[in-house]
Amino acid sequence: MKNSDKLQRRIETDLGLDVPFVKGERIPVSDCWHFCTDGNAVDSMFRDEQDFIDGMNRIYFVSRRFDIRILAHVLMDTHLHFVLYGSLSECTAFVQEYVRRTSMHIENRHGLKKRLKNIPVNCQRIDNDLYLKTALCYVIKNPTAAGLKVSPTDYPWSSGALYFRSQGLWTSPVWTYGQYFSHGLSDKSFRERAALMKTKSPDVDSVLTSDKLIFPGEYIEVGLVERIFRTCRNFYYFLGISREEDLNPLTTVASRMTIPIQEMRQHRNELLQELFGVTNGNKLDMIQRLKLARALRSRYRSSPKQIARVCGLVYEEVKGQLE
């Protein structure tokens, strides 16, 4: 038997795909993990459309360095989620390298040094098929749960749009204007490829791309995920019932009392004008920042950690005054 065939058999066994489904019985799963960064640790990871495009493409290039399979992912403005198959060491190394390169991107593009240094990364072992399906759907519906007005299967910066689609089709972000994906960038010069894809790798010559975006199906194991759910109906059933509280608390990166970060920034700006007559809080002293934080906490009851961050305070230093 070829090595590729042995590997495929091992993956199927580890994910429980070779076990008949029996209603009410759990199927053991191994070497499967849910990773996420702390959404309250930084003000932003992806600031604009270009950051998201570069972040999506970065997944492809970083993942090729590790012996892993990506089952699902989502990039949010303040955090990210991955559901991965592989050894814990390989999966951890992939996530750490992805975060490291994202931090470098933030420094190069926005001038913010070591923005993601020491950012908490949570990991939870997935040990059965029910938890695997729940984790996959929780990741996919994360944008909707965060208050964004978008369907889980139409959010462009995740794998949600890939599963159970007609062959060759994928939900395109609005900025592609309906362009179809094509094979690679062979019609462009080396410098043009390097500038568009932020890499000097020749690999992009053969991958599916649309303008500046590598087709996410190039790095997401769509077929495996569809086999995990078995049917489209089952997939949408779990999308409907999956809840944050069904996951281990270690993987929940934001309190259910946390308001979407975009809304909290807007509330902060409104209070800056109301309390101090300014539109920017950079020149506020510590006493003024604490006053702003307490006003936000009293009025909106969001998490103290989030409030401290948007007010430019160190949570550990002021948490006793915000609880």
Spell out the blueprint of helices and strands:
Elements: H1 3-14, E1 32-37, H2 49-63, E2 69-75, E3 80-85, H3 88-110, E4 121-125, H4 129-140, H5 142-145, E5 182-183, H6 190-197, E6 208-210, E7 213-214, H7 222-229, H8 232-241, H9 261-276, H10 286-300, H11 304-310, H12 315-322
Antiparallel strand pairs: 1-3, 1-4, 2-3, 5-6, 6-7
Report the β-strand fraction as a percent range. Answer: 5-15%
The poorly predicted ranges are 174-178, 249-257
CATH topology of the largest domain: Alpha-Beta Plaits
Helix content: 40-55%
What string gives the helices and strands in order? HEHEEHEHHEHEEHHHHHH
- How many E-type strands? 7
Largest sheet, order of strands side by side?
Answer: 2-3-1-4
Largest sheet: 4 strands, antiparallel
CATH evolutionary superfamily of the largest domain: Transposase IS200-like
The shape, in one word, is globular
User: Over all CA atoms, what is the radius of gyration?
Assistant: 21 Å
**Could you say how many structural domains there are in total?**
2
Distance between the termini: 61 Å
Oligomer: single chain
Structural class: alpha+beta
Assign the CATH class of the largest domain.
Alpha Beta
Protein name: Transposase IS200-like domain-containing protein
Organism: Candidatus Cryptobacteroides merdipullorum
InterPro entries: Transposase_17_sf
GO molecular function: DNA binding; transposase activity
